[in-house]
Each structure stands twice: as C-alpha cells, then as structure tokens.
Amino acid sequence: MAVVTLGAHILDVLARPVESIPDGQDTVVVDEIRVTAAGAAAGTAVALARLGNDVVSVGAVGDDDLGDLLVRIMERNGVDVRGLVRRTADQTSASILPIRPDGGRPSFHVPGANLTLTAGAVGPGLLSAADVVHLGGPDVTFGLNDPAFFEMLAQARGTGTVVTMDLLSNMPDLLRGAAAFLPHVDHFLPNEEQAVAMTGHDDPDKAARALLAQGPRTVVITLGGEGSLVATAGGVERLPVLPVDVVDTTGCGDAYCAGFITGIARGLDVLEAARWGTAAAATVAQGLGSDACLTDLDGVLALLK
C-alpha cells in the first residue's frame, strides 16, 4: 500500500537503563545506546515500511549532520525521503532520552526545523496518489494549518485517499491549534492526555465522543497500560494491551499508528485495525527505541495468535 507520512521528523538518541543523571563529570555505564528515526511522521514512516508498505515521508530537517543521519536511517529502512526539505538556517529536530528501568522516558528536545514546515513542501498530486496520508504531529508543524493545505486534503479525500492523524506534544495551546485539522481527517489517534487537553473531558469515552463531533469517522485513544479505545458513530469499544515485558515505551504510539494504518489500507474494519496497532505497539515496547523488535508484519501478527 502507498502511504505518505507528513509532519514531525526527529532524531532520537536513547540510553538505558538510566536511574539518575550523574553529578559533575561522573560517568554511568549503561546497557545500550541507540539512534533512531522518530517523531510522529518519521517514526511512523519507518514502522510502516517495516510492515510492508511503500512510504513517502514529507517534512523539514536541517542541512546538518543530524539531518544526514536521520535521512540515512530512513533510507536504510526503505522509506522514500525525497519529500524531505533541508533547511540551512535550522537544525534537525532531535531528542535525548534517558530511559528509566521501568520504561519511563524523560526527554531533552530541540524542535528545530519541524517548526518551518509549510504546505509548499508537499509535491503536486502526492496526497491524491496515496492510499493513506498520515498527518504526524500537525500540532508542532503548525505551518500546515493553512487553507491551501486543507484544500489539498479535501482533493485527496475526494479521490479516495484516507487521512489519519496523530499528535506529538501535550502542550494545550498546540493541541487546540491541531483541532483545526479534525474536519479533514478520517481517523484520529491521540493519546489520553492529548484527548483530555483538547476536549476538557477527563473521561476518555466522553473525550472520544467530543472529538468525533468535530469531524473524524473514528477516534482511537491510546491509554498506555490500560490499552486503547475505539470510538465510532456506532459506539465505543476498548481493547486491552498485550502481555509483554516492557523495556521502553518510546515510539509505541507511532507503531500503533503504523499497525492501524496497515490494517486500514488492507481493508480491515477499524476495530481489527486497532488490534494490529496494539500488536505493533507491544512489539516495539519490548526493546529500545521507536523501531525496536519490529521486523515485519508476520512478526507483529504472531502476537495476536
């Protein structure tokens, strides 16, 4: 299936396990350090490619060493990166994540070139040619909040393209801005904190219904260790997590989106697609980084048997 991922591209540097930041010039020896493509567009693009989809990724990165490395990682995973715009005046967005022994992930983050992405980066006809367009982090690529881009989405949906959306931040002001995209989206996949911030409802069921009223056909809210819920006009259903040993939760949301999109692109109903997303997230949770343990679709689906 042909998928376009559009939005936030981040280079993650991760280390585990980190119990505390050492004092002064002290050194702590850890078990593992990795560098991965991350962000709600780049991380999802890599996961989609590993699940067997043809992926074009569109975004803005710096013309710097971090950008070179990010592009190389994505290319090595089979992602078409010709949609990436290189910025000379901005660095590539990057994060440093010291992963705690329990899988928690505080971060140090530079927004970088993501803030410069605009509709001008989207090639003519690219969205309409895709089976699925995934908006990854429009809350931080707010240059896409533009009538010209919404018209592109409308034209693509008019030709049968399905539009999905995930968010990156938990900042209320940015999340409120992302609400402008909801009328142009078929399936919206926020986490619980994002859904609550966007609606003011502490109950995720009520938050999902409030988000449905703003335009999407489906709202899928991920609930961390409590699983996820799938809301449509027909009602709300909950899915449990799969029992795995959690190493790191980084990228689980991106993997969930990739599994869900892969299912939707293959004609599954939204509940079964969400089960594929659950399995993809459980796969990634077993290792370090946004692409950990994710090899192919068969490996993911094996968790559901």
TrEMBL record:
InterPro entries: PfkB_dom, Ribo/fructo_kinase, Ribokinase-like. One of its GO terms (biological process) is phosphate-containing compound metabolic process. Gene3D superfamilies: 3.40.1190.20. Keywords: Kinase, Transferase. SUPFAM superfamilies: Ribokinase-like. GO terms for molecular function: kinase activity. Residues 5-294 form the Carbohydrate kinase PfkB domain. The keyword Kinase applies. GO terms for cellular component: cytosol. This is Sugar/nucleoside kinase (Ribokinase family). It comes from Actinomadura hallensis.
